[in-house]
Amino acid sequence: MPALRPTAHAKPVDEKITINVGFVDLGQIDLLVQEGFYANRSDLIRTAIRNQIAAHAEAVKQVVNRRTLVLGIQHLTTAELEAVRARGEMLDVRVLGLLSIAPDVTPALALATLNSIDVLGSLHATPQVKSALADRLK
């Protein structure tokens, strides 16, 4: 299978998550924000997440290499997938980050070109494409 290269977007894409935090932890977070250590709760949580990711950076690097994952943002366009179909190939896509499938990619084109999809992070595609690929998502 040909290697896929990450495609840069003009602006960063963030995914919203929800977490449950105990009252004592939340109080400590609010205290640190009030004392000016962090701009707000989200700033502290993002910093804590980045610190944990940094603490495990070597392990993440080894897994990315072992699994041959694209690290970052991978955007698949209709033109790219049409070229894959013209070569008679199918892709096994593995992404740690964001996989974005262009809105004009049809379910038929996705089915004809995407053998499997493994995303650790987020998949952005039309509901029709997601539905068509449901059995190929890991």
UniProtKB/TrEMBL annotation:
Tell me the leader sequence span: none
One matching Pfam family is RHH_8
Among Gene3D superfamilies, the record links this protein to: Met repressor-like
| CDD domains reported in the protein's UniProt record | RHH_NikR_HicB-like
Classify the source by domain of life.
Answer: Bacteria
InterPro entries with a match to the protein in the record: Arc_rbn_hlx_hlx, RHH_8, Ribbon_hlx_hlx
One GO biological process term is: regulation of DNA-templated transcription
Q: What is this protein called?
A: CopG family transcriptional regulator
Give the organism the record lists: Scleromatobacter humisilvae
